[in-house]
Amino acid sequence: MEIIKDSDWEILYKLYETPNMTKVADMLYISQPSLTKRVKNMEKEFGVKIINRTSKGVKFTSEGEYLAKKAKEYMEFIKNVKEGLNSYKTELEGTIKVGSPYTYSKFELTDVLFEYSKKNKNVKFEIINDQSNNLFKMVLKNHIELGFICGDFAGDVNKILVKQNKAYIVSKGPINLEKLSQMQRIDYKTNDKSKEILDRWWRKTYGENPPIGMFAGYVEFAWQLVDKGLGYACCFLPDGFEKVYNLCLTPILDDEGNNIIRNTWLVYPKKKQMSTVVKDFVQFVKDNIQIRE
């Protein structure tokens, strides 16, 4: 008789979240035959059929669903026990899973983590880079513990304002705003809230929807295309951008001459109990980075 290991419960939990043997095997860095063997051992141990293989992937039986839900509870229990024991240590230890968009990671997050790590050398970070709307969903689903989110998303979360970025038209050289609608526009992937702000300004200024231009994919590629003189891009830019890219920046202003601003927040779930290390990092952000409105 084989003993059920923590790794077996993790396999069940991952398979239930991602019902694909190949993907889960890759996630857990084990071979697919080994994963299949572990599942069969659990079925033998509990005396029930846990999963069925189909052409569309893995389908859990009723007993399998029950065990998968218990696996999630068990994994959370083990995590909480380890974090609770860590709280008795004089030095903080643990890993924080943080989501961050590309531009915030490149221009801001490195400095934040560097400063925090000076006094917390045993705290590690797992960084997930994605668009803010995707990261916000991950926070709501408890897939990440914290998220640096660009834009004002609504949900059952606590929010700390950490940055306010100004909007600019980025071009190779000086531009005439009156002729901007006739120029080649370069678009890129961005979150829904950022796009809403920029599109609203465009419609109010030019009385029409933004033109459909070249699509660059990632914003850094858009900046490279601008540098080659292939068009302009409307962006919210981080501090220090002008030191990295020698491009012309024209501020985007509202009717009263004020800069168009996008907020960046550190968000975390209201109802989820935070570990000691996560609480400490949140307090660090409040003490050192938070912008008081």
TrEMBL record:
Protein name: Transcriptional regulator LysR family
Family classification: Belongs to the LysR transcriptional regulatory family.
Domain HTH lysR-type positions: 1-61
PROSITE patterns: HTH_LYSR
DNA-binding in keyword set: yes
Domain of life: Bacteria
UniProt GO MF annotations: DNA-binding transcription factor activity; transcription cis-regulatory region binding
Keywords on record: DNA-binding, Transcription, Transcription regulation
Keyword Transcription regulation: yes
